[in-house]
Amino acid sequence: MSVEGINCLESNDSTGLCASSSRGHEELVELQSKDGVVVRSLKNKRDLTAYNKTKNNQFRQLFRRQNAAERFISLDGFRIEWMRNDCYIEQKAAWLIYSKNARRTTEPMSVYVSIIKAWYLDNHHISNIRDTELIRWFFNKASEEEDPIQLIKIYTRETSYYRKLNEYLAIEHTNGWNNDNINRQSILSLMRFHSSLQQFSFIGVTYRGMRVTETDLEQYAVGTCLMNKAFLSTSKDRRVAEAFADSCGSIDGRLTAICVYEICLDTYRSAIDIETISEFQDEQEVLIHPLKYRNTNYLKWDACLPRHQKIGLINSLVVRALCICSNNVLLDDELKFLRDVLNANGYSVKLIERTIKHTIHKENQTDQQSNMNKNQQWNNDTNGKEMPVNIVLSYLEKELYSFEKKLKKLMKNIKI
């Protein structure tokens, strides 16, 4: 069946997916959702999507994206998403944005769409035929209705289109710009400047996951100014970014982090809230446009880590505290500081307290066993022998020097 036939409005002004959802046909909705060309964002005569028509949370699970790790978390680290900012890049980016802004009122949308189809569809031979049919359907709909929202809907679909688009943008922004590249980036002109998208402009805080190596982390030094080369899919719900980040596991040895983006200005529409446009509304997606400056002012630990890494981090910090604190007062102060820092970074109180308690108990047992072994060794070594006296001094800060002098005087008068 064709894409048009599957997504057409029935006699009751409702799509097949909307009808199945409103009547609670779970198996039918699941079957339709798995079909790669069913458009979830189509609305019925009451302006409701199939997702909106059901209030049952369990039923809504059927409308969720099964695998979006590549969309909401960067698996390529610094290479694809970012480039270091300098005067040359700023000038080129400013010129590029200005040129797109100048062109947006002089050419009809059909011109843009034909260019986009040529560069991002016809020339890239998407292997999945059903994906190709669906993407062409969206392009044609955008051209016929002069509606740029259709281009955003294409981007939110789980096809290879959005990956190829971002890869191409990343390569072009790295290698430089020319007239051919500007034509190939016509989609940026529409999504950033088209007047009908102004209502979706976003200002606020949004989140995205990232998998990085130790080398990648060096690129995010405090105060470094960066610019994103491609579109960034983020979510207003931190839990969405964390869930997809956790789903990647840690077998490749990379670190998992959460990037927090604070969009403060609406200049040139830096980001758009596409929750109501997206094919997957539950993700609460905010799309950040390319060529947006970022200042990485700080890096901090984050709760978006596998459980064993969280426990390992807390354990190492507690062991360090036990080593440097000479008395319980100093230890209590150090542990209080650690609790505050971990809480501020999203670690649960229950996990913190349990790990601290377990670590201290384990270290105490280790010390006791070590002391027993030392005493046993001492007894074995001192049978019939004269042994030197070993005195271990704790960390006593300023008092250490004066204490040492007094101790030396005392030792002169001790006879063993």
UniProtKB/TrEMBL annotation:
Annotated Pfam families: ADPrib_exo_Tox (PF03496), HTH_animal (PF26215)
InterPro entries in alphabetical order: ADP-ribosyltransferase, HTH_animal
SUPFAM superfamilies linked: ADP-ribosylation
Any Gene Ontology CC annotation: extracellular region
Segments for region (Disordered): 362-383
Ranges annotated as biased composition (Polar residues): 366-382
Gene3D superfamilies linked to this entry: Toxin ADP-ribosyltransferase, Chain A, domain 1 (3.90.176.10)
UniProt domain Helix-turn-helix: residue ranges: 298-357
Location of the ADP ribosyltransferase domain: 152-288
Name of this protein: NAD(P)(+)--arginine ADP-ribosyltransferase
